[in-house]
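To close the section, here is one more complete example, presented without commentary so you can practise reading it yourself. The ligand is nicotinamide-adenine-dinucleotide.
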Amino acid sequence: MKILVSGSSGFIGFHLIKELLNAGHEVVGFDNHNDYYNPDLKLKRLTLLSSKKFTFYELDLNNILINDQDFDLAINLAAQAGVRVPAEKDYLYETTNIEGFNSFCNFCAKRNIKKIIYASSSSVYSDINEGKFDEVNTPLKPKSKYGKSKIANELHASELAKLDDLSMVGLRFFSVYGPFGRPDMAYYAFAQAIKNKHTVTLNNEGNMYRDMTYIDDIIQGVLGAINYAANPKNIYKNEIFNLGNDAPIKTKYMLNTIEKYLGKKAIIQQCKTNNENLKTHANITKAKNLLGYEPRVSFDEGIERFLDWYKYYENI
Ligand SMILES: NC(=O)c1ccc[n+]([C@@H]2O[C@H](COP(=O)([O-])OP(=O)(O)OC[C@H]3O[C@@H](n4cnc5c(N)ncnc54)[C@H](O)[C@@H]3O)[C@@H](O)[C@H]2O)c1
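Output:
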């Protein structure tokens, strides 16, 4: 297949394209290489994607100047990710996540791309008293502007799928982690702070739970979504799936595991936050049934793989 991927130098984009190229697909990717986190990491990922079957453009989601034609499928991963963007930059949730996704869909319409997969997030949910987040029965009351922007994407996708003969698939990713991961996420930030003897900001005394999902499992889920979207039975649909691990981890446990591995104690500063969920926990039955999704990597195994990479990357 010939596949268009936005956010191609991002964490998930990089791992996905590596897999797509291995499987023999042709990929056109683009990314604006912004400085939300160190762009050197984005450049490093891009360098590792070098292949005759991969074409890269440095450009913005709101201005997609690409002449390539005949795409079979498009995947939107470009976004202002994370819930903790400073107030002076939180307009990006509107301009990148909402307007940018609309621009991506307009580009797909111009190129007659009928199958679109897009990144949503566990942040569309808010805390529930018990049980797991379920695509159908859990109410969507996001605590953050980020979560709201992802709901806007899902609603837009539903409208488009109804109007046109499109096959849309929204993937609600749950705390994805692994090698070449995102430095703004807790597991990576904890490792950095411990290594540099900086203070670790620990929200809500480390008593939050995250359904940490290893990158290789997520990529298997996206590949399942590609097959799902490619099935002609699934036109006129905007189908949404949780991709999580169904095994939440306490953030205090995450921090202790990283301390043990690096052989150093963290300097902790306690902090309270109210725009994040206390617990995320994915019900993944739908993804198992319809995408063949089956997460295999436990947190202990996955965090060790991340830390092995981190030590190598940081020359520790
Ligand atoms: N990693 C996770 O845990 C997680 C969880 C839930 C949802 N998601 C979603 O998955 C997608 C990929 O996340 P990621 O972890 O790879 O994040 P990432 O920040 O590493 O990747 C996003 C990429 O998009 C690019 N980008 C941002 N704005 C752009 C713009 N206006 N034009 C072009 N490129 C732009 C960035 O430079 C970056 O390389 C995002 O939509 C994110 O919201 C990720």
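Once you have examined the tokens, check your reading against these statements. The chain has a mean pLDDT of 96. The longest strand covers residues 115-121.
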